[in-house]
Amino acid sequence: MEDHTIDNFGEENEGYIKIDRYNTVKTRSISNHYTDILSQLGENPQREGLIKTPERVAKALQYLTHGYDLDPAKILRSAMFKEDYSQMVVVKDIEVYSMCEHHMLPFFGKAHIAYIPNGHIVGLSKIPRIVDAFARRLQVQERLTNEIRDCIQETLQPAGVAVVIECQHMCMAMRGIQKQNSVTTTSAFTGEFAHDRTRAEFLRLITANLH
Ligand SMILES: Nc1nc2c(ncn2[C@@H]2O[C@H](COP(=O)(O)OP(=O)(O)OP(=O)(O)O)[C@@H](O)[C@H]2O)c(=O)[nH]1
Ligand SMILES: [Zn+2]
Q1: Name one GO biological process term (predicted).
Q2: Any ligand 1 atom below 6 A from CB of 176
Q3: Does residue 73 contact residue 155 with C-beta atoms inside 8 Å?
Q4: Which residue's alpha carbon is at the smallest distance from atom 14 of ligand 1?
Q5: Does the pLDDT at position 7 exceed 80?
Q6: Whose CA is nearest to atom 16 of ligand 1?
Q7: Cα(193) to centroid of ligand 2, in Å?
Q8: Whole-number Å distance between alpha carbons of 26 and 2
């Protein structure tokens, strides 16, 4: 079979990334569309600064949506360890970069995630990895929040999961309503986090400046 792959963009790590290279057929096809789009926008796609732009955009878009090729549950399962620890584990300030599915413009900010182990803990890096796996797709912030919660709950089966995401949406800043400073917060909880005290502890931990 012809190898249509070039230019590694992902880590080759335990097969997390099924397609870990740019696909040359896709790159060529998306590039061709962007050459046309540049013309439609009144630009000259042949001028020096733009000559490679369609290909760059094609690769950037593949990178920005590479989450479709990742299996978040598999990422979590690859580092689950039996451990007798039943206090809340909080990973906060995880950078999020995603693209809204309505305008294909970026939204970005931070995710704060907690779980209460129920026999198993997970390798800490896997939490930001699954954030990325879901964020690097066309998304809405609400679905991103729920997908992260559900993945952790179903895979790790902890006593509870909490996810809070705060993001700025470029479609609300650079265009449309043009609000430069608005931040959208979404949250999703399971299990123990239904209790006010547990939820309050999580919210205190993510807002506290412990450094
Ligand atoms: N709920 C939600 N809405 C989003 C998200 N990202 C973008 N949107 C909104 O999606 C909506 C799409 O609405 P439309 O009225 O079809 O699009 P539009 O005419 O471009 O709307 P304006 O942005 O108000 O100009 C807008 O209100 C966006 O602000 C998201 O993550 N969650
Ligand atoms: Zn949008």
Answers
A1: tetrahydrobiopterin biosynthetic process
A2: yes
A3: yes
A4: 102
A5: no
A6: 102
A7: 30
A8: 14
Q: Cα of 23 to ligand 2 centre, how many Å?
A: 27
In the annotated binding site for Zn(2+), the residues are 100, 103, 171
- Domain match, 194 and 90 both: yes
pLDDT digits (tens, 9 = 90+) for 90-103: 999 999 999 999 99
Work out the average pLDDT over 166-178. 97
* Residue 24's CATH number: 1.10.286.10
What single letter denotes the amino acid at residue 29?
S
User: Residue 133 pLDDT more than 80?
Assistant: yes
Q: Are residues 79 and 134 in the same domain?
A: yes
The closest of 40, 30, 33, 100 to 60, measured between CA atoms, is 30
88 lines ligand 1 (CB under 6 A): no
Task: Render the burial of 103-116: b for 16+ CB within 10 Å, e for the rest.
Answer: beebbebbbbbbbb
pTM reported for the whole predicted model: 0.90
Q: Write down the ipTM of this complex.
A: 0.88
Instruction: Give me the pLDDT at residue 105, please.
Output: 98
Range(s) of the domain holding residue 10: 5-64
Q: Are residues 97 and 152 in the same domain?
A: yes
User: Within this chain, do residues 83 and 51 fall inside the same structural domain, yes or no?
Assistant: no
Do residues 40 and 85 share a domain? Answer: no
